[in-house]
Amino acid sequence: MNNQIDRRNFISSSAAAGAGLMIANSALGQAGGKKDINIALLGAGAQGQVLMNAILKLGRNSGIKFRAVCDIWEKGNL
After folding, report:
1. CA–CA separation, 37 vs 61, rounded Å?
2. Residue 7 clears pLDDT 70, i.e. is over it
3. What single-letter DSSP state applies at residue 68?
4. How far apart are the C-alpha atoms of 71 and 73, rounded to whole Å?
5. Which of 11, 34, 62, 35 is nearest to 52 (CA)?
6. Residue 31 phi, psi (nearest 5)
7. Alpha-carbon distance 63 to 31, whole Å?
């Protein structure tokens, strides 16, 4: 079994984990208020699509709003 991780997988996994931590941190910071959480997905690709679908399933009343989505790679466009 190959236990090595390539640079692309490491960067994408790290970015996804970092985004999750930022969202969680923002959500905790706003737990007492009624402000929306604004999200921008930049260069998101397939992992961004999974994240977007998961958040959209929460519904309109979740307080999470996508303000920008951008991916220049045509196959990864949301």
Report:
1. 11
2. yes
3. E
4. 6
5. 62
6. -55, -35
7. 11
pTM over 0.85: no
Per-residue pLDDT tens over the stretch 9-47: 767 766 776 666 566 555 555 555 567 888 888 877 778
How far apart (Å, rounded) are the C-alpha atoms in residues 7 and 62? Answer: 35
CA–CA gap between residue 44 and residue 55 (Å, rounded): 14
Q: Where are the domains of the chain?
A: 7-76
3-state secondary structure (DSSP) of residue 72: coil
10 token code pair: 């490491």
Any idea how long the chain is?
Answer: 78
18-47 core/surface letters (b: 16 or more CB in 10 A; e: else)? ebeeeeeeeeeeeeeeeeeeebebeebbee
